[in-house]
């Protein structure tokens, strides 16, 4: 017979141990997000910048019906991926709520307005450029280690899913921002794309060095077809041809770079997500996917609602679900759902070398 005290201690220990493993088993894998306004969950709310989505009607279809800093009427791409992971949305790294157990969900480091290059988005002032986002990822890992110990922290990061979305702003908010921009005088479109890819590769390598092992890398959308470009760069509302040409050079170079990087690393760490194809599907054939327009933004003013910002005094469409574009640049939640569906289940035209459901399946068996 054991003395009662020891028995109780053993039971208590078993209970704690069981709870510990329950927490680890029921906790969905962590999710880390880097990039620009397509994936920012609200970091810019905490920054001295003009690139912000913290006033109505942003968030009009979000569960709280309030603006959150997401550049969407409702959920954005990372929110919908979190949903698939069976997880709550990641908090912005700058949110004071990101502490304690919340760290286990992951974190969002994205900042609207940034690009691959440091001179992209300078007009927005105080944003988190990629190098800074990666620094904050390191800071996050320190906080996580303080919570669960450094070994466990490394495991959580290694087993996490990462999403990075960059490049769009290097075109619309840099090269094509003004006629005769510095970058357009410096580089032809093909040479600029090559330069962007070289710099993007360095960012991805750094992400790998910091422990990322499953990284979805999105290409850029049909930037020449966003309401803002149609409004300012085309005669009859067709997609702006030179911007479209740039995208058609950039995206294949990105896929090629990712292939090379994976082969150097000897593993499929990086996965090219051709979100540009998903967006192009919607832009080319909105009706086929249940949308009424891909030309006009839901919220904005001027031609195609593509001029200036979406604010409380802008035109606002009554039914967001029939618009591909929410504002002059960003998709509606419904369009984001189509994009994420293809990330999850798309064939190799959409996801290379494999889709997210295959990744989740593979990693759950590893
Ligand atoms: C951007 O700035 C960071 C930090 O200052 C630097 O490490 C990086 O090389 C810069 N990128 C480019 C493309 O100049
Ligand atoms: C993508 O996901 C679906 C559903 O899980 C799967 O059946 C399909 O084979 C995958 N496609 C590719 C090309 O990996």
TrEMBL record:
Q: Which Gene3D superfamilies match?
A: SGNH hydrolase (3.40.50.1110)
**CDD domains recorded:** SGNH_plant_lipase_like (cd01837)
Which InterPro entries does the UniProt record give?
Answer: GDSL (IPR001087), GDSL_Est/Lipase (IPR051058), SGNH_hydro_sf (IPR036514), SGNH_plant_lipase-like (IPR035669)
Keywords (alphabetical) are:
Hydrolase, Lipid degradation, Lipid metabolism, Signal
Q: Name one Pfam family in it.
A: Lipase_GDSL
Signal peptide range? 1-28
BP GO annotations: lipid catabolic process
Superkingdom of source: Eukaryota
Q: Which family does it belong to?
A: Belongs to the 'GDSL' lipolytic enzyme family.
The name under which this protein is listed is: GDSL esterase/lipase
């Amino acid at each position: 017979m054991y003395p009662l005290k020891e028995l109780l201690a053993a039971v208590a220990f078993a209970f704690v141990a069981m709870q510990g493993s329950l927490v680890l088993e029921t906790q969905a894998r962590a999710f880390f997000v880097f990039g620009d306004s397509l994936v920012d969950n609200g970091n810019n709310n905490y920054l001295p910048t003009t690139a912000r989505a913290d006033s109505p009607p942003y968030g009009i279809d979000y569960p709280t019906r309030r603006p959150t800093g997401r550049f969407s009427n409702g959920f954005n791409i990372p929110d919908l991926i979190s949903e698939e992971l069976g997880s709550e949305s990641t908090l912005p790294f700058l949110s004071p709520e990101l502490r304690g157990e919340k760290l286990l969900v992951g974190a969002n480091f994205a900042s609207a307005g940034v690009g691959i290059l440091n001179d992209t988005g300078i007009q927005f002032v105080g944003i988190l450029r990629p190098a800074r986002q990666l620094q904050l990822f390191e800071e996050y890992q320190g906080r996580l280690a303080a919570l669960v110990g450094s070994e466990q922290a490394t495991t959580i990061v290694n087993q996490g899913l990462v999403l990075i979305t960059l490049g769009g702003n290097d075109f619309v908010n840099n090269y094509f921002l003004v006629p005769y921009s510095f970058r357009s005088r410096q580089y032809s479109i093909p040479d600029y794309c090559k330069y962007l890819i070289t710099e993007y590769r360095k960012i991805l390598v750094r992400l790998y060095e910091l422990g990322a092992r499953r990284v979805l890398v999105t290409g850029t959308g049909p930037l020449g077809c966003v309401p803002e470009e149609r409004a300012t760069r085309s005669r009859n509302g067709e997609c702006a041809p030179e911007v479209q040409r740039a995208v058609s050079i950039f995206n294949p170079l990105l896929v090629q770079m990712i292939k090379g990087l994976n082969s150097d690393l000897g593993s499929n760490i990086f996965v090219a997500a051709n979100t540009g194809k998903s967006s192009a599907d919607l832009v080319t054939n909105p009706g086929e996917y249940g949308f009424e327009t891909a030309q006009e933004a839901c919220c904005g003013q001027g031609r195609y609602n593509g001029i200036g910002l979406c604010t409380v005094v802008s035109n606002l469409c009554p039914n967001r679900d029939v618009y591909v574009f929410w504002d002059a640049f960003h998709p509606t939640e419904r369009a984001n759902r189509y994009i994420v569906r293809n990330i999850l289940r798309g064939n190799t035209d959409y996801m290379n070398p494999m889709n997210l459901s295959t990744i989740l399946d593979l990693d759950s068996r590893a």
